[in-house]
Task: inverse folding
């Protein structure tokens, strides 16, 4: 009966699905790692390289002007997509680089000996390791908001920890392992009442739902282009303009300067002072095309699509014998990501069996080793969805899991 | 290669019922490594008699391939001379396993060998170079 609910029908927009993998149609359930790319994005990349490839800002010729215009147009698209201003959008390589940029600039300037950095137990390595490095350098402390049995943030504990006035709260919007959607708006309000700055790792949320930085009042927010139908190698750091203006740049070089002398230099305005050297021009323009595509479908439609798939998959997975699902079982509390283990089959072995059926999943620790420790496991299998996935993909997954049970004589 | 060919009964049996799992108290040889991409962990403990392996145990968590190949390897090096262990090749390990291993799973199949060599080289006070791993 679930089949009656209508889903988006966009597989045709993604050329990768024309091929077969191991003789089977590709069932791609690894979008949380990276999404597939729609033809519009691929055409945009090709167009840039074929028709107006040139450097940005410095070239006073027709191609250079067009490249600069398109590059800045992409920045405007990103800005309006998350309801901010182009001055607040820095192009980076990915979420990891965006977070490191904050850690190395704002973090280094503001976090001193005995200060506390507040994270959560469900952070991806990208929002954990840079802070560990900074804490070691500055002799600062790190605290973690614990997660409950169900895989939600412990709200009572978060209130307690925020009231101790850490320098920053850095947390994920949607967990890449548990799929949990964190109540970040409430947490940001609480943090701000305590004068605590907030960085949001939005790598898993911006591709799947409407994220409005003004409404959230986030100070910094980081995401990657490649998880939202854009190319790899392009990411975004949003920062409130005042904050960005108050901090020193990280990299020195071309384009981030205003004036350079043999003895000193002055910095360009935001956001350019954070973008030294030739940027990933094609990547930024490609990300702009990806945003056009996302908006053509509509973020609410995308969110609902993934919500329906998550609910359908959770219901089906629960019935597989020997399965252990991590994170909240109520699909309304999560989006697009389901991690699990099946009996004593190691996720790696499960991946191999599924791959034979043309099904791509993630297996391992999903760049969240401490969270896996907390869950008492070393690895998990993860399926994740995006607009091109269907109920049929989930049905194929379930059949393949049954096959894995047979292969493992269970 | 199909999954059925890869996960044969004997591989699953080595994975589920290894006879060399465990730990030694204050072992002379002790080494550990992880396949960080998949979360496989192997730790090997061994004691030496003269210059041969006397007791050897391994512990760890990981996929059927990494655990089965380590079990086979550990069993095969009992009473073996340390110099002989230094010369074990990856082909020998794959031959012991006797099942087709895809390029992507090679790291799993060879993790045990890497840890064992690491332990032996450390014990001998020598440095394990990348070349010694193949």
Result:
């Amino acid at each position: 009966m679930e089949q009656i609910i209508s889903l988006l029908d966009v597989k045709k927009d993604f050329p990768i699905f024309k091929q077969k993998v191991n003789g089977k149609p590709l069932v791609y359930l690894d979008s949380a790692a990276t999404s597939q790319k729609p033809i519009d994005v691929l055409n945009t990349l090709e167009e840039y390289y074929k028709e107006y490839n040139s450097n940005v800002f410095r070239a006073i010729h027709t191609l250079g002007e067009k490249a600069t215009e398109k590059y800045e147009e992409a920045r405007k698209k990103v800005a309006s997509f998350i309801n901010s201003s182009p001055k607040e959008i820095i192009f980076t390589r990915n979420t990891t680089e965006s977070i490191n940029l904050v850690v190395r600039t704002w973090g280094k300037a503001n976090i001193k000996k005995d200060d506390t950095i507040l994270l959560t137990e469900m952070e991806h390595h990208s929002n954990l390791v840079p802070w560990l490095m900074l804490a070691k350098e500055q002799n600062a402390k790190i605290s973690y908001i614990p997660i409950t049995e169900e895989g939600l943030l412990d709200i009572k504990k978060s209130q307690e920890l925020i009231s101790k006035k850490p320098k920053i709260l850095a947390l994920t919007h949607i967990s890449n392992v548990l799929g949990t959607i964190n109540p970040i708006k409430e947490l940001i309000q609480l943090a701000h009442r305590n004068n605590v700055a907030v960085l949001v790792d939005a790598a898993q949320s911006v591709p799947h739902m409407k994220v409005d930085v003004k409404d959230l009042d986030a100070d910094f927010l980081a995401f990657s282009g490649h998880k939202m139908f854009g190319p790899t190698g392009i990411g975004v750091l949003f920062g409130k303009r005042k904050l960005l203006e108050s901090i020193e740049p990280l990299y020195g070089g071309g384009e981030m300067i205003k004036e350079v002398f043999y003895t000193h230099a002055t910095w360009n305005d935001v956001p350019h002072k954070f973008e030294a050297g030739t940027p990933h021009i094609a990547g930024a323009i490609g990300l702009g095309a990806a945003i056009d595509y996302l908006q053509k479908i509509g973020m609410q439609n995308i969110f609902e699509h993934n919500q329906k798939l998550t609910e359908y998959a959770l219901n089906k997975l629960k019935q597989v014998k020997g399965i252990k699902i991590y994170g909240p079982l109520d699909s309304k509390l999560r989006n697009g990501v389901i991690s699990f283990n099946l009996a004593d089959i190691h996720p790696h072995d499960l991946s191999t069996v599924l791959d034979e059926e043309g099904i791509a999943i993630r297996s391992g620790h999903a760049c969240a080793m401490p969270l896996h420790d907390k869950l008492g496991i070393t690895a998990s299998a993860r399926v994740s969805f995006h607009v091109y996935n269907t109920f049929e993909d989930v049905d194929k997954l379930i059949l393949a899991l049954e096959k894995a049970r047979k292969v493992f004589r269970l | 290669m199909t999954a059925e060919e890869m996960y044969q009964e004997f591989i699953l049996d080595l994975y589920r019922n290894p006879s060399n799992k465990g730990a030694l108290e204050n072992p002379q040889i002790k080494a550990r490594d992880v396949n960080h991409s998949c979360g496989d962990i192997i730790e090997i403990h061994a004691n030496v008699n003269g210059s041969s392996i006397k007791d050897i145990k391994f512990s760890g968590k990981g996929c059927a391939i990494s655990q089965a190949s380590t079990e086979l390897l550990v069993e095969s090096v009992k009473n073996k001379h340390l110099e002989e262990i230094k010369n074990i090749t990856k082909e020998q390990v794959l031959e012991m396993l006797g099942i087709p291993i895809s390029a992507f799973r090679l790291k799993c199949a060879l993790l045990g060998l890497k840890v064992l060599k690491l332990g032996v080289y450390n014990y001998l006070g020598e440095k394990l170079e990348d070349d010694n791993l193949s």
